[in-house]
Design a protein that fits this description.
This protein is of the alpha/beta class. It is 31% helix and 31% strand. It folds into two domains: 89 residues, Beta Barrel (Elongation Factor Tu (Ef-tu), domain 3); 158 residues, Rossmann fold. The protein starts with a strand and ends with a helix.
């Protein structure tokens, strides 16, 4: 059992929780994730990236979007309640060293798994340029934390409600065109964003790392659901990754496979909202 120490709603359907998990907090490295299970007997196992950790407190921080039944049920939990099972740290950690100038690009909720990587790269002595993007101002998360770590901070929104009205690829191309060019790019966000970030950096020959955690299911390599094609070879995101060379990833195949259960996911999301509305009405009925 892992006690919920803190719970904050960051934006519509996006939540941050701090969980009591001393062993994971002590051992975790940037880029790794945990598997949560709300019900040990029948509960769905969901992989979530560790957004931060405090070894002294013995806690880890997770940030997640309520998109299905399990994440909605997790979002409903309050401080003092517990998560039945948290397993980790899992996955291959990010390779951290002093590269020089590292550009870290986060889209939407992808800013959460990017955060520990930015911290690690900064601690290794790199110059950090952070580019954060979201559809609108209300969907931007962890702005203060990222600003505090960045040597240069750029924020974009699709509608121009905060920062530049642009996609993250626009400033990314500008930064890659500088002399000297960046030594490395790390991009985490929706698959379509990561695909076009990789295409933006390809002409400049800048090594680009992407995290494919969005396709993970079981998180142990047993289900095979997270297989992706990288450099013409089959890889499993949860055990071989979650990070890969963005210039080698077959994003089109990955995005096609992500659509397989879209109808089921959309139905679950709508049903959870309907159930929440019904509970709300019942609570105010005399």
């Amino acid at each position: 059992m892992n006690k919920i120490l803190d719970r904050t709603q960051l934006s519509d359907d996006v939540y941050m929780m701090r969980l009591d998990a001393p062993y994971i907090a002590r051992e975790r490295l940037p880029g790794q994730f945990v598997i949560l299970q709300l019900d040990n007997e029948f509960g769905e196992r969901i992989p979530l990236t560790i957004a931060d950790a405090d070894p002294l407190e013995g806690s880890i921080t997770i940030i997640f979007q309520a998109v299905g039944k399990t994440t909605h049920n997790l979002a409903d939990k309050q401080v003092g309640e517990s998560v039945q099972s948290v397993l980790g740290p899992l996955g291959q950690p990010t390779h951290i060293e002093k590269f020089g100038t590292v550009v870290c690009v986060g889209g939407g909720i992808g800013v959460a798994p990017l955060h520990p990587i930015v911290k690690g790269m900064k601690a290794a002595g790199n110059r950090i340029i952070v580019i954060v993007g979201a559809r609108t101002k209300g969907l931007v998360i962890m702005e203060e934390q990222m600003r505090a770590l960045a040597d240069e901070f750029i924020i974009c929104t699709d509608d121009g409600s905060l920062g530049r009205k642009a996609l993250v690829t626009e400033p990314l191309k500008e930064v890659c065109g500088r002399i000297p060019k960046p030594d490395m790019v790390v991009a985490i966000g929706p698959p379509i964003m990561m695909k076009f970030c990789a295409e933006a950096t390809r002409p400049f020959g800048v090594h680009t790392l992407v995290s494919l955690n969005t396709i993970m299911i079981d998180g142990t390599g047993m289900c095979g659901g997270c297989r992706v094609t990288v450099g013409g070879q089959t890889k499993f995101v949860c055990v071989d990754g979650p990070e890969f060379d963005g210039h080698q990833v077959d994003f089109d195949n990955m995005m096609q496979r992500l659509k397989a259960y879209r109808k089921h996911e959309d139905h679950a999301h709508k049903q959870c909202h309907l159930d929440a509305e019904l509970r709300s009405k019942e609570s105010i009925t005399p």
